[in-house]
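Study this:
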Amino acid sequence: MDLSEKSFNRFVDLIYGALEQPESWRTLYEELCGAIGATSVHVLALDKQHGTLSYSDGANLLVQGELAYMQSYRFIDPRMPLVMEKPLLGWVHCHEVLDDEFVADDPFYQEFLLPHGRRYMSACKLVDNGEATVIFSTLSG
């Protein structure tokens, strides 16, 4: 993990660049994966009024995995309540709450996450109001 000032400044530049050119968010996500050793970066928005995913973007996301998640696995995801109960900008690191013993017996992990190489998640809510919740997360094996 590169925590140098040079790396920090690079990410500040990437963020400002993405604000000016939205198509460059993907570059930011990809470089962030490399810098922190994550398998994936995922930004998603949940529409609270309709109970649906209204936005999804990131780096190294599995299309078939995202579809399977929305069709069935989101209903048994033990991480989501942990994220939703945190205050705005509060971080959840799933391994601090869902230990290896839990993971060994949980169908969400056994059938969905582990086969896709994604055991660990760190996430925080960027926006949370009556209409939507926007979550930033990193995932790794």
In short: DSSP finds six helices and five strands in the chain. Helices lie at 5-20, 25-36, 63-71, 79-85, 100-105, 107-113.
